[in-house]
Amino acid sequence: MNILGIWDGHDSGAALVQDGRLVFAVNEERLTRRKLEIVFPARSIDACLAHAGLAPEQVQVVAATTCDPAKTLGRLWPGSKERYYNVRRRKTTPGRLAALTRTMKYRMTEWSPGPMSRTISSIVLRRQIARRGLNRADLQMIDHHTAHAAAAAWTSGFDHCAVLTIDGLGDGLSATISTFAGGRLTRVAESSARNSIGVFFEHVTNLLNMRELEDEGKVMALADYSAPIADADNPLLPWVRVRDGVITTAWAGHAFRRPLARVHWRFANEQFAYLAQQTVERAVVALARDAVRLTGSPRLALAGGVVSNVKATRQIRLLPEVEDLFVFPHMGDGGLALGAAVSASVRSGDRPQIDMRRLDLGPAYDSQAIESSLRAANLSATCIGGNLPCRVTELLAGGRIVMWFQGAMEYGPRALGHRSVLARPDRADLRDRLNLVLKRRVWYQPFCPSMLEREASRVLADWTGGRNRAMTMAYKVADDYRQHLAGVTSVDGTCRPHIVDDGDSGPFAEVLRLGGKQWNVAAVLNTSFNIHGEPLVCSPAEAVDVFLRSGADALAIGSFLVVRPA
User: Fold this and answer.
1) How do residues 429-442 score in pLDDT, each as one tens digit?
2) CATH architecture entry for 157-327
3) Residue range 388-409, pLDDT digits in tens
4) N or C, which end of the chain has less CB nearby within 10 Å?
5) Rounded to whole angstroms, how far apart are CA atoms 518 and 424?
6) CA distance 30 to 189
7) Which CATH number does 367-563 carry?
8) 29: alpha, beta or left, given left = phi > 0 and alpha = psi -120 to 50?
């Protein structure tokens, strides 16, 4: 059974599941080079088929998701999606009716799907998949939060758990709680789209003159720079309530902006971010507690855009009633294609076995493609072969910044040792150079470490093992190792680590081992291989282009090494 999951909204993409196993997944942004792409994922579909060597007629099922009226309208009139995309990403100026348009957009996205929107979405999607040659496939429409929940449940490794989805909104809902047992998901609570902590945080992001659906991580980071504010003095906390697994907000999402703007007027930006972050953390923790109580399971699997907030998920992990916690690595809407494919696989009678310990699920390139890209750019490269990790570690030890391109591209928003930019982790000056010169992003946004698992229990004060290895959660850095991880520790003393298996024999793990001998911790600063505002690089040509446009000192690509003069 070949099942193709697709998502044609924010961060569109496709995933291929064969006989219950995930074989390939990619998001459209990596192929069109527009960050958080919104178009129908035609290139992602073609990449899935090409990787598996499948003809379109060999796909039995195409699983798509979300058919609420707002999504359906975007499918009928793609220009409306494109207009909002360009305004949101600051590619064009908003018109005179921007405020009204924003209110109407949020109001419409709160509407639940009905027979008409389901029918129209199905008709439009059938036409689009037919253009890719998939006219023989059965089209299945999967509920938005069911897709999120399926992705979390079936990739968690739990045989029984509570599943919590929290995002902005989709198909009339903003959050759900389900029980996962015996291979079945049973929903026990849901919150309406009108009562959304995701939309609440989107408004906060926009009021801080950042891009909603993209810069929420910056708001979380900015909050660390506020002096603490007591809960009794936080005017936002009473606006969000959770009872029996259901969120209730003081205003509907479309009406939240004005009261938030009044509070923002009274507080500095970092204080406003702090108030909002605390509100989200309290709501998420309350939902998690209710999930444990309502399902009877102390193990939780999470998905949805709000759970990309690593400070909030850390608070869940620290709850005494939570025994184990898993955050789906591609937690936002970009992971919906996989969730839809998994849901359809279960419907077909399969019992999916989705192994997320490795996320190199995207395109890979051979040495010939790499050499061709280097020659086209007139770059003088040396073929290092198996000595590459040693040479790269020497460069890092000398304070150099190295761009790292190896193997297949990562699935999801994080660089995990395949498309990464590396530096030694103990140098705050290298962090600042990366932020201001190479990455060209705000100074207060921290970088993350990659480290061998054996180091986690030593350098992370609250590490107890677990399933969250892909930069999905914050951990406290032990006091004795703050200097060793000065370049990857936030001002509040936490970091968001990527944990690499001790037994990994790949070149990235070898860099960590060698680095441990140089700077006493088997870890590196690891950030995504891109210029800020652009997608992660996918191909060798893109890697070379970003290297030439950046201030990086070296490029390790395949078995080749390019080094700029000091």
Assistant:
1) 998 888 877 877 88
2) 2-Layer Sandwich (3.30)
3) 999 999 999 999 999 999 999 9
4) C
5) 9
6) 35
7) 3.90.870.20
8) alpha
